[in-house]
Amino acid sequence: MKKIACLILLALGVSAFFSLAATAQQQPPKEKNAALQTQAQPEKIIPAAKNIRERTAIYVFVAWLWAAIFVLIYIVRLEIKEADRLLDLKFYYNGKK
Amino acid sequence: MKAKNIGRSLAGWFEERLGLSAVMNFLRKKTVPLNKHTIWSYTGSAILLFFGVQVVTGIMLAFYYKPILEEANKSVARIMTEVPLGWIIRSVHFWSASAMIVTVFIHLFSIWMIKSYRKPRELTWMSGVLLLVVSLVFGFTGYLLPWDDLSLSATKVGTDIPRSIPIVGEWVTKFLRGGEDVTGDTLSRFFSFHISVLPLVLLLILAVHIYLIQKQGMSLPLSAEAGKEKQKELPFWPNFVYREVIVWLVLFGALITVAVFLPPSLGKAADLMAPAPKGIKPEWYFLFLFQTLKLFPGKILFINGDTIAVFLIVAAVVLFFFLPFLDNKPDRIKGKVITWLAWATIAYAIGMSVWSLLT
Lengths: 97, 359
Prior knowledge:
The complex is a heterodimer. Chain A has helices spanning 2-24, 29-38, 52-88, and one strand spanning 44-45. Chain A is mostly helical. In chain A, helix 1 runs antiparallel to helix 3 (52-88). Chain A is elongated and about 65 Å long. Chain A starts with a helix and ends in a 9-residue tail after the last helix. Chain B is globular and about 70 Å long. The N and C termini of chain B lie far apart (70 Å). Chain B has a domain at 34-276: Cytochrome Bc1 Complex, Chain C (Up-down Bundle). Chain B is 69% helix and 4% strand. The longest helix of chain B is centred in the middle third of the chain and has 33 residues, at 184-216. At the A-B interface, helix 2, strand 1 and helix 3 of A face helix 2, helix 4, helix 5, helix 11 and strand 3 of B. Strand 1 of chain A pairs antiparallel with strand 3 of chain B.
């Protein structure tokens, strides 16, 4: 079960990384710089997704993050059960195996 | 098999030179008492998690931030609009700062309530109070760095407060500002404090704090010390650490989620000549102090009201610092009064903060 969980996590990670990296590509810095300089500075800059693609990527990223967290929590809970079982068996005695 | 053998030889090579197995043995011997207060034991490592996030995101922001008067606001705007995912990194840094300070307050008040500062843990408490002060100064110095109207005005007000202290007040204000007024010198000074002086000070005090915790072990509740209840224990490694990992994962996920959906905005570059915007307020963790200062009239018996307010606040912090020595009989009535004071302080801070937000 642990191996399957790790594989799911890896698959989620790889897919999310590449989709996020692809969406995070913005205009080349030079073009952006020029654009920013010609514009008057706005009163307030409120960061937000610029288009539907970016917004979707953000939602996908957050969904991936929580999926990965739940998988990791599942794995860690298995480790906790094992550690508690060993503790009950008094496997660790005075901190030494 | 070959990979395992290589791994074992490598581990043996490092063990011969670093002797890390002694640390692992120590961690295995260390135990965490299991009782109704164990939940508060997770707050310490949560603070470390948020601090780690601050360091990483802070370094990433420092790659692009320029601590110069003409460029500070523009560089933050660039981070938010041009640098890929820059706005998320800034948002994570912003929210992690608040999360760290909230957790520090929770940690401190939980220690106060369960009186973990009893002998021999007085120094642990005192180092903890210093860490709280350093965390608040981190927040104060970081607030100026975007150099927008709000942060400039808040810094002007904040650095003006020490002026009301007799004799040294003027000097303290000039030292903080790097001159009479808040200028570009203040910005570079605050930036230096924020990224070099304060991290070094914090790491030094943190090292002492963690050393003391490891040396003295985790404290027991009063009732357990009196032998009224049998104490269950959990080994720190690996049982408690695995549980902490779950807490870290949830906190990290919550931090990223909040940062992504509630990113902070950036105002236009501060104008040194412009008057302060109406209704300026400091960051949330200073609101109760800000509101307290507003309560005091201009003069009280020929003494400046601000001077009295600052002295009272400093006196409260000093009493807070020496709390283990004041609460030397925690199981008596005095101890119960001090616990009641903790609740009163929390209620006061929340009440004054809400009042400040509403006015």
